[in-house]
Amino acid sequence: MVTIEYIVDLVNKHNVWRGKECINLVASENVMSPLAKRLYVSDFMHRYNEHFEKSHYQGTKYCMEIEGFVKRIFGERFNTDKVEPRPLSGGQANLIVLAALTSPGDTIISVGLTSGAHVSHTKFGVVGVLRLEEKVAVNNEDLTIDVDATARLIREKNPKVIILGRSLVLFPEPIKELREEIGWDIPILYDVAHVFGLIYAGKFQEPFEDGADIITTSTHKTFPGPQGGMIIAKKDFPDKLWEKIYYTTFPGLVYNHHIHRLPALVVTALEMNAYGEEYATQIIKNAKKLAEELYDRGLKVLCADRGFTETHQILVDVRDYGGGAKVAEILEDNNIIVTKVALPWDTPKDATENPSGIRIGVQEMTRYGMKEEHMVTLAEFFDRILNRRENVRREVTVFRKNFQKVHYCFNNI
Ligand SMILES: Cc1ncc(COP(=O)(O)O)c(C=O)c1O
Q1: 68-87 tens-digit pLDDT
Q2: What percent of the chain has pLDDT over 90?
Q3: Which of 133, 190, 194, 260 is 20 to 30 A from 330 (CA-CA)?
Q4: Ligand 1 center–CA 245 separation, angstroms
Q5: What is the pLDDT of residue 353?
Q6: 164, 218, 313, 315: residue to mutate for ligand 1 pocket, most atoms within 8 A of CB
Q7: Cα dihedral value 171, 175, 140, 321, nearest 10
Q8: Is the CB of 167 under 6 A from ligand 1?
C-alpha cells in the first residue's frame, strides 16, 4: 500500500534528480525564478474566477487586478489590447482559436507533423477533433516552408486559417514573404509556444509586424513563467472575431482558469523586461555553440549550412547511434535529458516507434548560468557517451552542482 512517506520521498527524489543533478535539455521546459515560484503557491490556488468582464464569483477583486496587469504588460509589449491569458496551456489556446474561427469541414494549412508542427495543428489533434481538413504546407528540407509552392497550395485550397509555428523550430517562419504572395484575406495563426521568450525579448521575428494575425503560446518554454497558455491578437484584428475568441474561451472552453498562475506570470514578465534581452541573447549564443561543438565531434546536427539554429533548439539526426528513442534513453542514463523527435524523412511507423532525431534545448541551462564555455563541456559529455560509449553520469552530476542558481531574475526580493 502506498504511504505518505513513500510519496514524499518520491517527490524529494524527483526534485533532487531533475532539479539539481540532471542537465535538462528538453526544449519545451524551463524553471521559474525564486520569486515567481514563491508567488505561485498562494491562496489564489484555492479560488475560482469565471468571468466575461465582471466575475461571477465574489471575492475576486485581487484576481481581477492581477489579470488586468497581465493584459496590460503583454498588451504593451505587443501593442494591442487583445490579450487572453486564461487558456491553461498552449494546446488549449490552439483549440480555442481554431474553434472560434472555423466550422467543421473547413480546411486549414499546417506545416505537418514530420516538419515539426505541434500535434494540435494536425488531424491527430485539435484539427481532427474539430473535424477540420488538414492540408500540409510544402516544406523545405530545413524545416521551413517553400513559400511559392505553399502560396500556390493556399490559393488552390482557400483555407480558413493558416497555422505556422512548430515544435521543431530552428528559424523564423517566412510570414512576410508568404503575405506578399497571398495577400491579407486569410488569417495566419502563428503558434510561438517555443520561441515566445525570444520574441518577447526582441531576439526573434516580430510576429505582427511580419504579418501574423494571432499568436498562441505556452508561457513556460523559452518564456520562463508558470505552465499555462495565452492568445494575443494584433491591434487591428477584427473586434468581431476577437469577441468570438473571447467567448469561446469562456463560457466555451475554459472555466476556472487556475488563477494562482497569474502573479508568477506577471513577475516573470517584469523579470523579462529587465533581463530578457541578455537572457535570450545568451540562449542563442549557447545553442549555436553547442551545435558547432557537437558537429565538430561528428554528430549530424541539422542545418549546418544555415548556422544550425537561430533559436534555443538544436536537432540531431542520431540514426547512426540507433535512433532517437535509444539515444534519449542512453543520455538519460547519464543524467542528460533530451527529447526524441521525428525528422522530415521518418515514416509514420518510425516517427512513433523510433524516430531519427533528438531535440536539444539550451534555455533552462542558460537560465542556470551556463555560457559558451560550458557548451564545450556538454559536447564533450555527448562525445564520450555516444562515440566512446562511456558512462559519465557521476561527472555530469558534479558538473551540474556548479549551476544551481536561477539567473536573469530579481534575486534579492
Ligand atoms: C508549437 C507548440 N504548440 C503548442 C504546444 C502545446 O503546449 P502546451 O504543452 O502548453 O499545451 C507545444 C508543446 O510543446 C508546442 O511545441
Answers
A1: 999 999 999 999 999 999 99
A2: 94
A3: 194
A4: 19
A5: 87
A6: 218
A7: 30
A8: yes
Q: Tell me the pTM.
A: 0.97
Contacts of residue 112, Cβ cutoff 8 Å, sequence gap at least 6: 122, 136, 137, 139
Which class is domain 24-31+275-400? Answer: alpha beta
Query: How far is 284 from 170, CA to CA, in rounded Å?
Result: 10
C-alpha angle 21-27-32 in degrees, rounded to nearest 5: 65
Domain boundaries in the chain? 24-31+275-400, 37-266
- Ligand 1 pocket check for 91: Cβ under 6 Å: yes
Q: Tell me, in angstroms, the distance from the centre of ligand 1 to residue 394's CA.
A: 32
Protein residue closest via CA to atom 8 of ligand 1: 90
Average pLDDT over residues 36-61: 92
Which residue do the cell numbers 469561446 mark?
Answer: 248
pLDDT-derived band of residue 242, with 50, 70 and 90 as boundaries? very high
C-alpha 98 to ligand 1 mean position (Å) = 15
Among 3.20.20.70, 3.40.50.150, 3.40.640.10, 3.40.50.720, what is the CATH number of 37-266?
3.40.640.10
